[in-house]
Amino acid sequence: MNRLAAIITLLACWSAAAATLPQVPATASRLADLDRNLFKCGTVENRAECRSQGRAAGRIAKEPVVAMVLFYRDETLVRSVFAFKEDQFDELVGLLTQQLGTPESGSEGLKAGMGGVFENRYYVWKLNGRIWFVEQFFERISTSGLWIMGAAEFEALQAERESMRFRGARDL
């Protein structure tokens, strides 16, 4: 089963949990097939990051999804992120725990400008080779993120984040 099909299958299984995530476009497993009217992409070497234009359709914990971000490596979809309002973080974690079981949890130090270091809580569910990773702060303090990816991509993401740490914290 290709990565996109696995993501769509997981999203379909989870939709019964009172959250209706926007679906990753069916033709988006290859970067060349992504609808550039819906997503704006930036590329560096063999990597691309594509963000939904305007509000993504769908809801997380009763609130609209703020944005969908798709990550490609060598023209193939490897990670999807659904951004939502941070004040819905605990509710989403509760919904996912009911649906997917008890997650692994942890936290990391984040820096936001001159505001010092603060805690970014996260939860990880591992299901059939897929990782569901929810973090309290995604790109800004008002936004949380639900990441869906394969186990190898999760390890790559963690390695990227570790390389960005300075004195135990990374920039938001």
Protein topology:
Layout: H1 3-14, E1 39-44, E2 47-52, E3 59-60, E4 63-64, E5 67-73, E6 76-85, H2 89-100, E7 104-111, E8 117-127, E9 130-135, E10 143-150, H3 151-163, E11 169-171
Parallel strand pairs: 7-11
Antiparallel strand pairs: 1-2, 2-5, 3-4, 5-6, 6-10, 7-8, 8-9, 9-10
Commentary on this structure:
The structure is a single chain. By secondary structure, the chain is of the alpha+beta class. The chain has helices spanning 3-14, 89-100, 151-163; strands at 39-44, 47-52, 59-60, 63-64, 67-73, 76-85, 104-111, 117-127, 130-135, 143-150, 169-171. The strands form 2 sheets. Strands 1-2-5-6-10-9-8-7-11 form a 9-stranded mixed β-sheet, sandwiched between helices. The chain is globular and about 40 Å long.
| Strand-residue proportion | 35-45%
Rg: 15 Å
* Distance between the first and last residues' Cα: 34 Å
Number of helices: 3
Taken in chain order, the helices and strands follow as: HEEEEEEHEEEEHE
Quick take:
This protein is an alpha+beta fold and 172 residues long. It contains three helices and eleven strands; from the N terminus they run αββββββαββββαβ.
Which descriptors apply to this entry?
single chain; alpha+beta; nine-stranded mixed sheet; two-stranded antiparallel sheet; 3 helices
